[in-house]
Amino acid sequence: MSRQIRITPSILNADFSQLDSEIARISSQSDLIHLDVMDNLFVPNFTFDFDRASQIINSCPIPVDAHLMVADVDLIAPAYAEAGCASVTIHAEATTNIPSTLRAIRRAGARAGLGIKPGTDIEGYADLLDEVDMFLIMTVEPGFGGQSFMHEMMEKVRRTRAIIGDRPIWLQVDGGVSLSTITEAAEAGADVFVAGSAVFGAADPASMIVSLRNLAMAVAD
Ligand code: DX5
Ligand code: ZN
Predict the structure, then answer these.
(1) Could you tell me the residue range of the domain that residue 199 belongs to?
(2) Model confidence over 88-98: pLDDT tens digits?
(3) How distant is the alpha carbon of residue 191 from its chain centre?
(4) Does 1 reside within a domain?
(5) Out of 43, 148, 186, 195, which could bridge 216 as a Cys pair, Cβ 3.0 to 4.6 Å?
(6) Domain count of the chain?
(7) What is the pLDDT of residues 139-155, one digit of tens each?
(8) What is the CATH number of the domain that holds 197?
(9) In angstroms, rounded to a whole number, what is the distance separating the alpha carbons of residues 36 and 138?
């Protein structure tokens, strides 16, 4: 198996009052920065409104992977692409017209991601392979950082990898990814790994990213 491995640190558990310096600590080793956008409706937590998110996107020195955990995402998702995100992920559970919103994200110049919560099956979305650049399998209930990795999601990751086959679609896992869980996720077929508290809780966040990548690459090689 030979897959490119990407590590996308989530800034959810970073210090929001000094985000520039928090991002500077990890940017040399990160493939993308994972920006968790929460509206206190789709999930019981709030992070950024669009204006604040746009500031972060504009000042971020590396590509931004926006994870939109917001209700009624159809209209706002293309705006995140226009704001300069490299990748914009919508949740299947929050989107009214999934194919049209995925197409609008691509038209606005970003990769189109489709995420599903732990209780949602992937099979209902297998016919969207031509519209999707990345599937996101949540390995915690969305809303908060620092939760425990749901090992029982690995079967869903394996099924998603089988559906993707050889297509150049990324397969992301998000939630509870750490030195003790990343190997299992990579073995199940994931190739893009969000890590929040594992990175920002480490004494040296940049070297934690290197360690996580090395573990995943050992499986993917
Ligand atoms: C949860 C977020 C995750 C979270 C990951 O709703 O989507 O991106 O920040 O944080 P950890 O790695 O701490 O689980
Ligand atoms: Zn996320």
Answers:
(1) 6-217
(2) 999 999 999 99
(3) 11
(4) no
(5) 186
(6) 1
(7) 999 999 999 999 999 99
(8) 3.20.20.70
(9) 13
